[in-house]
Amino acid sequence: KQPKKPHWVDFQKVIYNFGIAKLFVWLTKRQNGQYKIQLHRSWMDDNDKWHDDTININEVEDWEDIKKTIDVDYAKYLNWISKEEALMKLEKVPTEKTVKEIVDKRPKLIIDFLKNIDLQKFDLKQLSIFLDALSERDKDAIEREINLFNEMIKNLNPHDNKSIDDFLEIMDKVTFHGVNSTMRFVLDRQEKINIFQKMVNNDKTYEIRGENSIHKFLEKNIWILDEDYMILSSNQSLKIEIGKEYKKKHKISQSAKRPDFVLRTYKDDLIISEIKRPDYIVKLEDLFQLMEYRSIANELTGKDFNFSGYLIGKKFAPSVKAYTKDLPNLRIFLKSYTDVITEVRNRYKRLLEIVEEELKE
Question: Domain residues for 144?
Answer without folding.
Answer: 81-186
